Amino acid sequence: MRPILILGGTTEASHLAGAMADAQLPAILSYAGRTLTPRAQPVPVRIGGFGGVEGLVEYLLREGIGRVVDATHPFAAKISRNARTACHRTGIPLLRLERPVWRPAAGDRWVSLPDMEAAAAALSGVPRRVFLAIGRQHLGAFAGVQQHRYLLRLVDPPVTPPPFRDCSVVIGRGPFDTGAERALLERHGTEIIVTKNAGGEGARAKLHAARLLGLPVLMVERPASAGESVARVEDVLRWCHADLGV
Ligand SMILES: NC(=O)c1ccc[n+]([C@@H]2O[C@H](COP(=O)([O-])OP(=O)(O)OC[C@H]3O[C@@H](n4cnc5c(N)ncnc54)[C@H](OP(=O)(O)O)[C@@H]3O)[C@@H](O)[C@H]2O)c1
């Protein structure tokens, strides 16, 4: 059977890699190489960009890839777009594994915003203590809003200083739990949270903690996605087997 390429970098991709190993499906998990210490995996791993669409096409053909599962983060729009184009060109079946969006529940004080720039604009005004829970890539969008005291949480210690006059950095990788998230928000006197609508369980606890503390959340919504998509690992396994005619 030809190898299945999993485009990863998410908890779901790791779960899928485990499930494919258990099912004895020949998977290869691909990381962009953003984190210093990626989790150990039960399938072969490759690390680093492919070199755009051309590089991905070349990789797919060279490795004899039979299917591609795009299990990347909902905000990783470029690799998803590249995967669609490369799979279309080569005729290799592609499936997107994507966790459902978070939806507000009673007691939540969310403001939905289309992108980081809108979230930065919404933060204009009086100085506040802001938990900028967006990872490291988009911090620059907030560089023009310097009156706040920022709390950042990053997977790895920053190589270059964050672009803020007043900020604290905590290092941490999910999954997080509500009690610890609440304690973190209280310790830093957080008044407002900015986050991406990533979905999934690992990062949800901060939203529960915000609800308990009555804190507002600026929720940056996902970029649009396209193509066939499923939400569960079992659905991907079924797709692999259906494709085999099993
Ligand atoms: N964006 C987020 O908020 C976020 C959060 C958590 C985890 N992640 C994970 O971090 C990675 C990078 O995210 P991003 O937002 O920088 O992605 P992106 O903007 O969509 O992709 C930028 C470039 O990174 C390379 N790349 C991305 N994912 C890759 C993968 N799984 N395997 C090999 N190359 C990959 C590709 O380089 P080439 O063009 O050279 O092939 C791609 O063009 C993704 O794997 C994603 O799942 C992202």
UniProtKB/TrEMBL annotation:
Pathway: Cofactor biosynthesis; adenosylcobalamin biosynthesis. GO terms for biological process: cobalamin biosynthetic process. This is Precorrin-6A reductase. It comes from Haematobacter missouriensis. Pfam families: CbiJ (PF02571). InterPro entries: Precorrin-6x_reduct (IPR003723). NCBIfam families: precor6x_red, PRK08057.1-2. Keywords: Cobalamin biosynthesis, Oxidoreductase. GO terms for molecular function: precorrin-6A reductase activity.
